[in-house]
Fold this protein.
Amino acid sequence: MICNLCPHKCAAYKDKDTIGGKCGVSANIKVARIAPHHWEEPVLSGEKGSGAVFFSGCTLKCIYCQNSEISADNYGVEIAPSVLAEEFRKLEVQGVHNIDLISATQFLPAILRAFEIYKPKLPIVYNCGGYERVETLNALEGIVDIYLPDFKYSDDALAKEYSGAENYTQVAADAIKEMFRQTGRLTVNEEGIAQRGVLVRHLVLPNHTRNSINALNILKENFGDDLTLSLMGQYIPHGKAMDHPKLNRKITKREYEKVLSHLINLDIDGFAQELESADESFIPLWNYEID
Ligand code: SF4
């Protein structure tokens, strides 16, 4: 296939044995971990966990990515769509609240084949960096119930420098608009577990509160009262960011509270992470093995 799945539009040739494009993976599904996951937002993890599928590779190359072993170094195991379908079934049997597809876009055609084989009777979560093509998201209509995109940047220069993405702000805003068109605002069941809709995440970076404040402004302007936001304060320097002069530390309490008070002033619904969760122990282990 010629791959133009994400906004990079690499037009790279890929097949099951050929790696290509900025994401650096082949057309075969590759996964690093499949397991119940308890560290998503409470509406997703609940008590039984989210059925997380961590895909290898990523369309963004964030220099501070906490999962760089899989997103940049592409650690993982290749599996067929039929095996992924079986993994969906196993997670469902384990009683998770949803199937959480984490960084999946680079494998989308093969993942759609897995859903043709088995579609779990659980909400399907599309957990992504927000840098998506509307045309690609169209293929997920009727399959994905909950979109969980990041909105990382209000500043395209930062997006280019830190994540290698051109025109991030407009591209991500357009993608989130499409996600709202498909699924609407976030709804939960009587147990408080998300069933459908959009939950936007924003990670506060050290030395970049202005980026965060402008990002919240853009989200509020575009999505108004439909917006549910998860403000994340768990940034820890990782990978290349450890040597970056602006990214080589955790965020301060003052930085986080500045962004949080702006969120409250804008009257945005959602979740705010406690700063105490900025701890390496929240990074899952990459341990996928085929039975
Ligand atoms: S999914 Fe990968 S190969 Fe395809 S357009 Fe995006 S970065 Fe390029």
About this structure: The chain has one domain: 28-282. Residues 31 and 55 are 4 Å apart (CA to CA). Residues 28-282 form a domain with the TIM Barrel fold (CATH 3.20.20.70).
